[in-house]
Design a protein that fits this description.
By secondary structure, the protein is an alpha/beta fold. The protein has 20 helices and 24 strands. The strands form seven sheets. It has a five-stranded parallel β-sheet, sandwiched between helices. A four-stranded parallel β-sheet has the order 9-8-7-14, with helices on one face. Strands 10, 11, 12 and 13 form a four-stranded antiparallel β-sheet that branches.
């Protein structure tokens, strides 16, 4: 029904600074990757440009493309309509396409500096610190006790989820920036911490958190108890694993899922994951949980272990007690409360506790008197500096176990802080620069609004464990990833949330055509005096009190950017505003960036750049 037009009406204009560029997905990413940008490029078949855009801000882009927890997908507005974009799987397609194409990565021009920085740990945080400092010209050396780079990704994530080649891609690119990796070297044994302090101008500790937290219940010392981090380290390094017929995994994180699936590949017949909270409180994504269950792992929720039962010194089972959820704890989740008399036993020959991990601080010199808080080195949250001069720390080493992308984001920020320290800068401000482009034309790809989320191809269950050899099963990939057709179809679903609708109050005649044509019913015309808040809305202050004052209301959360309202408006009163956000600090660092071709415009022959 058309909206009746009153005789007099005022539509109060809103200052452009009030509008927000819709960058929830980008803000959700700890390293600031512009997922919307490379999705848009992929939808146009511009795969190499999409790869460049996805790789530039992310020092661990290849690893992320396989095992990122994808916080951006939880923020994706497409999820309000049906299902969010498969952003991680799209990044994997672009990474694999680039690798198969043979196109070399273009390295930045670097002006060398004399300052030297040592990085302890070659995991995601260490790689991030090394890359960011190397691009600034610092001489960076990364030390790690493992034989290869990757840290937790190498010894904690199974090869059937994360191919070793992906880890090598990220490490190789950092090496090409001039970073030196020194493997099989333990700080405190092969090289003392004092030596690093003498030889380097700055030290970044990114040693992760790979020490298992002991299970404090009777029977935890029985033969057959293997802690998750140690279990996965042996599996990833090809060391012998003893796995019984019945396996019980205690925990609800990614390590628990990985241990259960690895157990199946090493011959276990029945595997159970027991978690003390509910399914909705698991910290893993639905795809990971779904694949774990499809492979036959049994999930047991709201149960806590109270004893590991043994026979002749070996594990025979685990006694649990049922829980109910009580009041929220410090994390905001409801605490599990034991239910008296609800004990039960699950038979097992192997028990794998995967409840938490801690940092190893033994390599730190006692005389350095590091400030320690809850078993972690205490750092200034703004500068990542410890109380020891020139020593910084970041990643899981100071936060406890997090995700790959969170550790990398921590590493980037730590690198910026080290750069400021070594350059003598103490005060850095960040200014937002928003470019707004108005247009009366905006065309979305065909069928973008009805395309369902493309299923990510997986290896059939029958082919996931093709051998009696555990090593073969362990290295057989599960996820196949998109082909070009699937990638284009999935990226076409992007709603381009950096486009906003703008109403020109001086052109609008309140005919109501925009509201009539909107397929989602997100445009409304309302009486100005019905808009209430704690105080007068400053954008509408001059309009309050008008008898016939009105406002055009748009629900940005549900708008699908179809631009039908723009095309339908008879007086060109509606435009599509494209927002491009850059946050540039006084030290020249670009913290966030938006899309369209502006980011690549300076690259010769790419996205409209000079040829």
């Amino acid at each position: 029904m058309a909206i009746e037009q009153p005789q007099e009406f005022l539509v109060q204009p809103v200052d452009a600074s009030w509008l927000q560029c819709n960058i929830e997905c980008q803000e959700a990413c700890p390293v600031g990757t512009n997922c919307r940008g490379y999705l848009n490029l992929a939808a146009e078949g511009r795969f190499e440009e999409g790869y460049i855009l996805s790789r530039e801000p992310n020092p661990v882009a290849a690893m992320c493309s396989y095992v990122c927890s994808a916080p951006c997908e939880r923020a994706c507005r497409r999820g309000d309509i049906d299902r969010p974009l498969a952003i991680r799987a799209m990044k994997r397609f672009l990474v694999e396409w680039h690798e198969a194409s043979g196109i070399p990565d273009v390295m930045p021009r670097i002006t060398p500096r004399e300052e030297r920085v040592a990085v302890i740990g070659a995991g995601p945080a260490g790689i991030a610190v090394a890359r960011e400092l190397a691009t600034k010209g610092y001489q960076v050396t990364v030390f790690d006790s493992l034989p290869y780079g990757g840290g937790t990704m190498l010894i904690g994530v199974p090869a059937f989820r994360l191919p070793r080649e992906a880890i090598e891609m990220d490490v190789r690119l950092v090496e090409r920036l001039g970073v030196t990796f020194v493997f099989d070297t333990t700080i405190g044994t092969d090289i003392t911490f004092d030596q690093l302090q003498r030889d380097f101008d700055g030290i970044a500790i990114t040693a992760g958190a790979m020490d298992a937290v002991a299970l404090d219940i009777p029977g935890a010392d029985l033969d057959g108890v293997q802690y998750g981090v140690d279990f996965m380290k042996k599996a990833n390094l090809g060391q012998p694993l003893e796995v019984g017929r019945d396996v019980v995994v205690i925990g609800g994180g990614y390590t628990a899922m990985d241990c259960s699936r690895t157990s199946l590949r090493h011959g276990a017949e029945r595997v159970s994951i027991v978690y003390r909270r509910t399914r909705s409180e698991l910290v893993v994504d639905e795809e990971e949980l779904g694949e774990t269950e499809r492979e036959g792992v049994r999930m047991e929720f709201l149960a806590s272990p109270i004893e590991i039962i043994g026979e002749k010194g070996k594990v025979a089972g685990v006694k649990f007690i049922r829980n109910r959820l009580g009041e929220p704890d410090a994390s905001g989740r409801r605490s599990p409360v034991p239910i008296e008399g609800s004990e039960f036993v699950i038979p097992a020959q192997t028990v794998i506790p995967a409840v938490s991990q801690a940092a190893d601080l033994t390599f730190l010199p006692v005389e350095a008197t590091f400030e320690i808080n809850r078993g972690r080195v205490k750092v200034d949250p703004a500068t990542y500096a410890s109380n020891v001069k020139g020593v910084f720390a970041c990643g899981d080493f100071v936060t406890g176990p997090t995700t790959l992308i969170e550790a990398a984001g921590h590493g980037k920020k730590c690198a910026y802080a080290i750069d400021r320290y070594l350059s003598g800068r103490t005060d850095v401000t960040v200014a937002a620069n928003v470019k707004i482009t108005s247009s009366w034309r905006h065309d979305m790809p065909e069928f973008y609004d009805v395309l369902p989320r493309q299923h990510i191809p997986m290896v059939p269950l029958s082919a996931r464990m093709p051998s009696i050899e555990p090593e073969v099963n362990f290295n057989t990939p599960v996820e196949l990833g998109y082909d070009a057709n699937g990638a284009v179809a999935e990226s076409t679903r992007c709603l381009m949330c950096n486009f906003n609708i703008w109403f020109d109050p001086f052109r609008c005649v309140l005919c109501g055509a925009c509201a009539d044509v909107c397929p989602e019913g997100v445009i409304h015309m309302v009486d100005i005096n019905t808009l209430k808040s704690e105080g007068a809305l400053p954008e509408l202050e001059e309009a309050y009190g008008w008898e016939n004052g009105g406002a055009m209301i748009l629900d940005e959360e549900r708008c699908i950017r179809c631009a039908l309202c723009v095309k339908r408006c008879p007086f060109d009163a509606i435009t599509m505003e494209r927002f491009e956000l850059q946050e540039v600090s006084t030290d020249g660092r670009l913290y966030k960036e938006s899309y369209r071709d502006a980011q690549l415009a300076g690259t010769p022959g790419v996205a409209g750049g000079p040829r």
